[in-house]
Specification:
Blueprint: H1 10-13, H2 17-28, H3 32-38, H4 62-86, E1 96-100, H5 106-115, E2 118-123, H6 126-138, E3 145-149, E4 162-168, H7 176-186, E5 187-200, H8 209-218, H9 225-234, E6 237-244, H10 246-257, H11 266-275, E7 278-287
Parallel strand pairs: 1-2, 1-4, 2-3, 4-5
Antiparallel strand pairs: 5-7, 6-7
Helix pairs in contact: 3-4, 4-5, 7-9, 8-11, 10-11
């Protein structure tokens, strides 16, 4: 039986001190790097970008340069969401999808627009859930897209109810084995899980100083690359596609580092990517 929204109190959604600290971080988060980019077309993301940026955005009148950079970064982050959706497989309007760690709702809204399907987003940030539901209401798609204050480790949704699930830079906040056990329960047989994440390169041993700085900045716990595949395998999720997106995300970070919305973490990301201690991966896995 599904958990009703009224039962989703803070006490039963946020079960540990760490989860409460993460929720507090995202409830208070109002970074321009997320909000100003979303204002471009009213589509708000909480992830990074992919692809080369147009160098011409750095040229032209100084008074409009920052606006051009913001528009270009938003184009790159929307392109990243499109890459994720490209890997979901065949999705039909009757299918139900899950966005685990849905932020302000951008990718869920894009999925509904592309496939015509139903999408539920879950987040432990009540502020983000409210924001995302307002976005769905403004688009008049609340019959198809809804966001819920729920824990992705224990969603309360019905077993086998999802054709596809994705996580977009959210797995670093949870135990992977516990997470993928829940996803395996939710997915129908043959269903698809897609993950885009940053992970430490354990071929090099322990995490680097740059990766540790990223952890501290986002109150997260970045997993090693090998841990993803161990946890997937342990829960009947078989990788069908693995794409190294590291080189493709570096231009986004280089442009962001030059913008007024930089948060100070850009150097750590660029250092980690370029020294090889951090990878940006897409993993698509099927439920068997």
């Amino acid at each position: 039986m599904s958990v009703t929204e009224t039962e989703n109190t803070v006490a039963n959604v946020l079960r540990t001190a760490y989860q409460k600290s993460v929720a507090n971080y995202w409830n208070a988060e109002k970074n321009d790097v997320n909000l100003k980019l979303g204002e471009i077309d009213d589509l708000y993301h909480h992830h990074y970008g992919l692809g080369d940026y147009d160098p011409s955005v750095l040229e032209g009148p100084a008074e409009t340069r920052e606006r051009r950079m913001i528009e270009e970064m938003h184009r790159l982050e929307t392109a990243q969401a499109d890459v994720l959706l490209d890997h979901l497989g065949e999705i039909r309007p009757e299918h139900r999808l899950l966005d685990a760690g849905s932020g302000r709702g951008g990718t869920s809204i894009m999925a509904n627009a592309r496939f015509g399907c139903s999408v539920d987003g879950v987040s432990i940030s009540q502020q983000q859930v409210s924001f995302a539901n307002e976005q769905a209401a403004r688009r008049r798609i609340t019959d198809k897209v809804g966001f819920h204050f729920r824990n992705m480790l224990d969603t309360g949704f019905d077993t086998g109810s999802r054709r596809a699930i994705w996580t977009n830079e959210t797995t670093m906040y949870v135990d992977l084995f516990e997470l993928y056990e829940e996803f395996a329960r939710l997915l129908e047989y043959g269903g698809r899980y897609v993950c885009i994440t940053g992970c430490s390169n354990d071929v090099q041993g322990l995490r680097s100083k740059a990766v540790s700085k990223i952890d501290e900045h986002y109150t997260c716990n970045i997993h090693s690359r090998s841990e993803y595949f161990k946890a997937l395998s342990a829960n009947g999720l078989v990788p069908i596609d693995v794409v190294d997106l590291t080189a493709a995300t570096v231009p986004y970070w280089e442009l962001r580092a030059r913008s007024e919305v930089a948060t100070g973490i850009e150097e750590a990301f660029l250092t980690a990517y370029k020294e090889g201690s951090f990878h940006y991966l897409l993993i698509a896995a099927d439920r068997i």
